[in-house]
Design a protein that fits this description.
The protein is of the alpha+beta class. Helix content is 26%, strand content 25%. Helix 3 crosses helix 7. The radius of gyration is 22 Å and the shape is globular. It starts with 25 loop residues before the first helix and ends with a strand.
Length: 452
């Protein structure tokens, strides 16, 4: 789901998933071999410093080449996670829903050219919105999870009529197909449309078309939250704090599914080897609009390689899958406790598949007194990005806040250098020059201190 469903901070003002540059050539990469032991050390380091709990699966050419589970599925009950631990996967649910819609189109139960008015005419602009617009997030339908009070009611169970009333209470944001804007409402409505055309529940459709054929035992959708299910956490005040679960009835096929890293990988493999969909449907699914977005997926670069991916974030859960067609590489990460950048984790694990070196992160912290921190504060502006960054002190902690973004704490690592690990952000200040350089995922942006 979109970040309003999560208490985690998400810095989205700089780059898309995995985008970065490197000076390392492919021939240089081939000289190196990253052992499984190094990945084990990588995840042990993250776990030791309260950065990650969850599961990881890496496949290459149909074989699992690395798999691990770290931490607990429930800290309070001391239940350890294993490779079969199921996690809420948030917006990765959209990939499942996209497959069901494309399958329904193959079976002539619907057409992507059908308008929303055919199913739910009371939604604003429904006559001009097609199912294809919704699949590509080009419908203009208001994102229900952006409602001001969403986090006050997200734990409450709601039926279809209540959800339709909420979605229908908002006006269209823009003319259909005029631009792309991510909206969970699209995939909530698509889930209801699937239920209509099949006269079956979304849960039944997931079973019939995906989990039973693929023999996935820990992937499902349920309107109820069971006590035995994995808990999620955010790291606050030096401890993991249990998060309340968003009711799956409020997210359904936009973010309500549960799965494991292994079963997500098997699902992605079944998509691209045409087990679930025809070649024509896969071609449609991977046809990109706005140079990035397909149906239930988006395009990602990894060094010189090209792939597809989708991410998920709901409550304290985060997840990602990545598929690189050229070498049939699949990565799946599911997490219930993360205070680190999931994209950095993805890069480290994918690097193993290509014998590319990666670093074990260091979480050493240096002591900086309040007087020293004060010299970094102020408003910073850049010619490279249309935003300002406010650097300030709160509760003896240096923090930064970009335009229209939540604030985030900065961890001192060296003199004049700070990081925010959750988003892979590094800031280096040059006090005498009244400047700051912000780095994220291989990109660098220069900022100047705004004169008062």
């Amino acid at each position: 789901m979109k970040n309003s469903l999560s208490h985690r901070l998400s810095i989205i003002f700089i780059s898309l998933l995995l985008s970065f540059t490197t000076g390392c050539s492919h021939s240089e990469q081939q000289k190196l071999y990253i052992h499984k032991e190094k990945l084990d050390t990588y995840f042990a380091t993250l776990n030791e410093h309260d950065r990650f709990m969850g599961s990881v699966t890496l496949c290459k050419q149909g074989e699992i080449v690395y798999q691990t589970a770290i931490g607990f599925s429930n800290i309070e009950k001391k239940i350890k996670a294993d490779n079969n631990t199921p996690y809420c996967i948030g917006s990765i649910s959209k990939t499942f829903t996209a497959v069901l819609v494309l399958k329904a189109a193959e079976e002539k139960r619907l057409s992507l050219a059908d308008t929303l008015a055919t199913f739910f005419p009371k939604i604003d602009n429904a006559k001009n919105i097609t199912l294809e617009h919704m699949l590509y997030h080009r419908s203009g339908i208001y994102n229900i999870t952006n409602e001001k009070d969403f986090l006050k009611i997200n734990t409450k169970k709601q039926n279809k009529e209540e959800m339709l009333k909420r979605i229908g209470s908002h006006k269209s944001l823009f003319a259909p197909n005029s631009k792309m804007e991510y909206s969970n409402s699209n995939y909530i409505l698509l889930s209801y449309i699937l239920e209509k055309v099949y006269n079956k529940s979304y849960s039944q459709l997931i079973k019939e078309y995906i989990t039973i054929p693929l023999e996935l035992e820990n992937t499902y959708y349920s309107t109820e939250i069971e006590e035995k299910e994995t808990s999620s956490y955010v790291f606050e005040q030096n401890e993991w704090k249990n998060q309340k679960r968003t009711s799956p009835t409020q997210t359904i096929g936009a973010g309500g599914l549960i799965s494991t890293s292994k079963e997500i990988a098997l699902f992605i493999q079944a998509i691209f080897d045409h087990t679930l969909l025809s070649k024509e449907s896969i071609a449609k699914m991977t046809t990109l609009k706005d140079n990035a977005f397909g149906i239930g997926l988006f395009h990602v670069p990894f060094y010189t390689y090209s792939g597809y991916a989708h991410t998920g974030g709901i409550d304290g859960f985060q997840s990602i899958w990545v598929y690189i067609p050229k070498d049939q590489v699949i990565l799946s990460v599911t997490s219930n406790a993360l205070s680190y950048d999931i994209n950095s984790i993805s890069v480290a694990v994918l690097s193993t598949a290509y014998d590319i070196p990666f670093d074990i992160p260091s979480f050493d912290v240096i002591e900086v007194n309040l007087d020293e921190l004060t010299q970094y504060t102020g408003i910073y502006v850049s010619n490279q990005l249309p935003l300002t960054i406010h650097v300030f002190i709160e509760n003896n902690t240096l923090k930064a806040q970009a335009t229209r973004q939540p604030s985030f704490p900065l961890r001192p690592t060296q003199k004049d250098k700070f990081t925010f690990d959750n988003a892979g952000i590094a800031m280096e200040f040059k006090v005498n020059e009244k400047s700051m350089t912000l780095k994220q995922r291989g990109m660098s942006f220069n900022f100047q201190l705004k004169q008062e």
